[in-house]
Design a protein that fits this description.
CATH architecture of the largest domain: 3-Layer(aba) Sandwich
CATH topology of the largest domain: Rossmann fold
CATH superfamily of the largest domain: P-loop containing nucleotide triphosphate hydrolases
Bound molecules: adenosine monophosphate
CATH class of the largest domain: Alpha Beta
Length: 445
């Protein structure tokens, strides 16, 4: 399939070809024709699948036809959960709309009101924003949505997680009822179904799942860790890999992100932190530096890195496992984007086993355990409920035998349930190329 066959107009096709895109991704091929027909849509696609263009392109196509409505409010509004994601969507609008005249801008929390008032005081076509600040503008009457034709909710699941449900309802209530609405979400639970029922009319569902979602070429690995010290030693080993060109290291807290980044920086690595306590300017600078290749190791928290689109991220390292399985999927989606291959490595200590269980149940697959000689865990991971099927007593790795045994039992011992700790399950042993055997290049904390 080609972009031409999707009936996109010449200036859009020219921009896509300037971006080097040759064909639509599956989510684009499915969503764009429906969106162009004016249908309401629920799109389920992971980040990294070309989701942004699947709503930005039809929105731009709509803007090629002048509005008959009076007023100067936006004709298209995209709501995003985070400022970073909003900035990326705005960049996509400018990129894909560079051969047409689009008046666009973003309205984000943490940014000066003056510029935003300025933007909204003039006629504008396309606004991308975070719900909280948009509500502020509605209350101040600086934002008028009476001319709105298309409302888009990007990463709606995350917006609900972040408590924006009421804000979304208020924003939607300020839009004309006959508008078109597109909603993108990675998950579809009760809360999401309710909001979709309130905001969308007769929506069509477009889901990119299973095989198609595997367009993300990501190799996932698990390293069982004893403690923080062990995690630091493994991290030192991994970042010395020459194949690691750019990495995002995820930590559980903002404080840890700062600490890990500053320790790596003091060791001479091009490292920086990214988290919600940093000013918007500092966050933008850090992302810009990573895009330019001035930052190789970005140590981030989930919210700050949500939707982050930096090309060429070779590795994602989960220094700490996320509490929510959805975040795991979002984290690893920072690599392996648009056909490139990526590696996602997760550390798991005993106190994180429950998170690992959740992730494996959610993704429906077990993470393959890797060990690095000299950096093996000193004890196996004890699993209670685990695995995609939520079975009990899953085999865990025995570092001495380089194999799995049932609940630490003897591998291959007779008398157990077949396939349940009785078979030998090989762990991938990564032989090290050069470097120090004990990985003791220093602590990252
Ligand atoms: P997204 O899922 O929207 O975050 O997009 C992931 C990445 O894929 C971005 O870097 C886009 O620039 C890129 N991309 C989107 N659509 C295409 C396409 N049709 N061909 C090649 N790359 C694409």
């Amino acid at each position: 399939m080609s972009f031409e066959s999707l009936n996109l107009s010449a200036p859009i096709l020219k921009a896509l070809s300037a971006c080097g895109y040759t064909a639509p991704t599956p989510i684009q091929a499915q969503s764009i024709p429906l969106a162009l027909e004016g249908k309401d849509l629920i799109g389920s696609a992971q980040t990294g699948t070309g989701k942004t263009a699947s709503f930005v392109l039809p929105a731009l196509q709509r803007l090629l036809v002048p509005s008959e409505a009076r007023g100067k409010g936006p004709r298209v509004l995209v709501l995003t959960p985070t400022r970073e994601l909003a900035t990326q969507v705005t960049d996509a609008v400018r990129n894909y709309g560079k051969f047409m005249r689009v008046r666009s801008g973003h309205i984000l929390g943490g940014m000066p009101y003056r510029d935003q008032m300025d933007l909204l005081s003039r006629p504008v076509d396309f606004i991308v924003g975070t719900p909280g600040r948009l509500i502020d503008h509605l209350e101040r009457r600086s934002l008028n949505l009476s001319r709105l034709e298309l409302l888009i909710l990007d990463e709606a699941d995350r917006m609900l997680d972040m408590g924006f449900s009421e804000d979304i309802d208020r924003i939607a209530a300020a839009c004309p009822e006959n508008r078109q609405t597109l909603l993108f979400t990675a998950t579809m639970d009760d809360a999401m179904a309710k909001i979709a029922a309130r905001l969308l009319t007769d929506p069509v569902r477009v889901a990119i799942e299973g095989k198609q979602a595997e367009k993300l070429h990501i190799e996932e690995r698990l390293h069982v860790t004893d403690d923080m010290r062990h995690k630091n030693r493994l991290l030192q080993h991994l970042i010395s890999d020459v194949n690691l060109t750019k990495a995002i290291i995820f930590s559980a807290t903002k404080k840890d992100a700062d600490q890990i980044a500053s320790e790596l920086y003091s060791q001479g690595h091009a490292a920086a932190a990214l988290h919600g306590d940093m000013s918007q300017g500092a966050r933008n600078r850090t992302i810009y530096n990573m895009r330019r290749g001035k930052v190789r190791l970005l140590v981030a928290t989930d919210v700050a890195a949500r939707g982050l689109d930096v090309s060429g991220i070779s590795h994602v390292i989960n220094f700490d496992l996320p509490k929510f399985a959805e975040d795991y999927v979002h984290r690893i989606g920072r690599t392996g984007r648009a056909g490139a291959t990526g590696v996602a490595i997760s550390f798991c200590s005993m106190n994180e086993v429950a998170y690992l269980d959740r992730i494996e149940r959610y993704t429906g697959k077990s993470l393959e355990q890797h060990v690095i000689p000299g950096l093996e865990p000193s004890r196996p991971l004890r699993r209670v409920n685990s695995g995609p099927g939520g079975k009990k007593g899953r085999p865990s790795f025995d570092p001495r035998k380089k194999s799995f045994g049932a609940k630490g039992g003897r591998p291959g011992a007779p008398g157990g349930k077949p396939g349940f700790g009785r078979r030998e399950q090989q762990v991938v042993v990564e032989y090290r190329r050069g470097g120090r055997r004990d990985g003791s290049a220093g602590s990252a904390r």
